[in-house]
Amino acid sequence: MSAFKGLKPILYGGREVWPLVEGGKGVAATNHMSSGAWAAAGGIGTVSAVNADSYDAEGKIVPQVYNALTRKERHEELIRYAIDGAVEQVRRAYDIASGKGAININVLWEMGGAQQVLEGVLERTRGLVSGVTCGAGMPYKLSEIAARFNVSYLPIVSSGRAFRALWKRAYHKVAHLMAAVVYEDPWLAGGHNGLSNAENPRKPEDPYPRVKALRDTMRAEGVSDDVPIVMAGGVWFLREWNNWIDNPELGAIAFQFGTRPLLTEESPIPQAWKDHLRTLEPGDVLLHKFSPTGFYSSAVRNPFLRALEARSERQVPYSKVAAGEHTVQLDVGVKGKNFWVTPADLDRARAWFGAGFTTALRTPDDTVIFVNQAERDEIRKDQADCMGCLSHCGFSSWKDHDDYTTGRLADPRSFCIQKTLQDIAHGGDIDQNLMFAGHAAYRFKQDPFYSNNFTPTVKQLVDRILTGD
Question: Residues of the chain whose pLDDT is less than 70?
């Protein structure tokens, strides 16, 4: 293999930084310690502004408890927590960075009250935030919000087509503040992925032609080659991306690291999560469709995820009238007579019922799933406790505007994402919660850098990445 070319610093936020971006990682999986340290090491640190932690007078994390009786009022509580937490994290990260690197914030456009949260945070952190990365949905308003607060914006897309739509509709009006475009690979990145209906979740595509197509689209719209494309998802050793660096076909390239910074001294995730990352094998991260956002997402295939897989397997379609092959009435798990199923499905349903899965819950797709009493109680409680953390939630049927409902049946095949992400980030059981990770996480076990249980500081990690390893 040819010698690693090495990276050159880029100009960002008025100073020279390494073209290395820390991935934003949702609820409390990055915080001021990790992002401040990443910036202090000369890179672009990213504070997650998705329900970030705030602290009391003694410096203890304030638990996000919801006291209001209605979802809409709990949603207002959530927005207050989100703004206060992100502001606190940004201020602390900025202090740790002490004038080096840059601090970005990351928001999901699909989070509940995204615009209100983003504006609230930027209003109170003027001069501290260099840029906003934003994906999960089509954040058309991102550019006009960036213009109002004079910060850079870095849209996250998974294709040239998505970029073109955003550019044509909004971003061309605020071209000067678009600092980079993040290409998040839908098959390799952790967390929520922008896999489109035209793409096969089981057939990963090579990122190079997709990024070249994105650059071609940007060029066609008059965007300078100096505006970097940030490769996100699956990046481990930079030497493996040697042919991307200084490549005239691709223009300026930067690299985002989401998974590797999880295993650092400053990473805020609990020790059990860090330890588990060292044990993963290829294939242990699953691209799945259970998220209440409706997006595909990638997470460790732990007992929590396997239980969701099993729940969806205990599923039969029904019709309200006898029709076609639906010739027999379902007589277990449901009250009422108007569930017509196939004879084979009736046999399966009776077997599940006999195994203790005694409640059938309807889904929005004219199917029922069979769950046990404990699962049923948890699903119902979590749906009732919804605090509106998403703009549209498949699990609870919440919507953050107009009449506050999606108008669809709540989907029991999904789960409360806010509850589980808060729980795992603050010391909850790593087997019974959603554990996001990128698909390269198995490399912790193979990379000699981490042998003998070595956990680097963020500075040691960034220095190591810059060598090509």
Answer: 1-2
